[in-house]
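Hey, can you fold this one?
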Amino acid sequence: MTSTTSTAPVLPAVQAPAQAAVRKGNVFVGAAVLIILTLLVAEIDKWIGSTFKANGIASNPLEYPLTAVVIGLLANGVFKLLNLRWLIKPALRTELFLKVGLVLLGATIVLGDVLKMGIGGLIQALIMVASVFLFTWWLSGKAKLDDRLRAVMSSAVAVCGVSAAIAAAGAVHARREEVTYITTLVILTAIPLMVLMPILAGAMGLSPQVAGAWFGGNIDTTAAVVGAGTMFGPEAQQVASVVKLAQNVLIGFVAFALALYFATVVEKDSSKRPSPKIIWQRFPKFVLGFLLASALASAGVISPELRAELKTVTTWAFALAFVSVGLEFSLTDLRSAGWRPVAVYGGATVFNTVLALIVASVIFGGVAG
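Sure. Predicted structure:
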């Protein structure tokens, strides 16, 4: 009897070196494309920033991650249309770029800078991060969102937007599409808040300290926080920056708590207790690099000049990552998320806005008469 089972053709062994050479060539081609696109992002970001500066806004509220994702998406569409995505795929190392960027970000966070403005900024950060995270987690649970998406969203809203979303995604092994989704929501929400909050603060007669603390505790991107503070005045800008910096300090602690929770609750094996080894395997090691870099910067081991250089490298690493995110993006995955994440994010932002105003008023001196 003749067998009807079909088998895939086996390529001759002699073709293996040729295939390896082709793949190696693709890595170089893909890397060249990625670098060119990232340089394009830098030029566009510079132009957008100068346009805002000409209109009295010191920083670019659109943030380069959004520009990078858009450029990546456009290139993604072109490569799909030409059936050439295979050419760049070997060079895309999104997770590596994100992890390198986050570790280097730690070197820009100096605890002494937070404490210079007093303990108030740190107290507000602790209250806001804990309250907003728990509220967003609860609300997204009511909306029946996936636990990983809940973790990334809650971290982004509660802590510091894009950077917190990246750290949380590493802790819970979230998909790239979920990071892209939340990052887009963060930046698109921050833009109108940057414009509206200084207007509302002026209408309510808030003091510069309270207004700055409100901006820093509510707006989820650092550039938009600085932009809002700039519009209200130099004192508000300083307080806003410090409050946002205090929340940045908490990235590592939130990531550790998420890794522990997912290992012991969400993904636990009912037949055995999670061991320290399992928790260690679950924990994103790059967060330790972030904490170490911050500790070295706080101890003065990393000089201010070197911190400035590392900040530039951090920007490039994140730009490479978000261009890669755009190049790897799948519209099908985004559509499957539906409208519920947007509704949850909107509800969490409203809660964050109201609570930040109350906490800022109590800690930083109330409303100016």
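The chain has one domain: 94-363. Let me know if you want another pass with a different chain boundary.
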